[in-house]
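Worked example

This section walks through a single chain of length 68. The input is the sequence exactly as stored; nothing has been trimmed or padded.
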Amino acid sequence: MENKTIGYDKAVARIEEIVNLLENGEKGMDELSDLVKEATTLVKFCKNKLRTTESEISKALEDNEENH
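Given that input, the structure is written out below as tokens.
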């Protein structure tokens, strides 16, 4: 799954789906490995999105305070 073409909410939903698949234990070893790699990539994407959003919000709040 290409994480740059999906948004944060879809990435989180896919992570939850992967966790459920892993918890069920019904997947073979090769597929488990692929799922863990995909989840890792999605988690990194989500963390980066959260950091970026936090930074943008902080900047907007600082700009707002400077204008008042």
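What to look for: Residues 3-66 form one domain.
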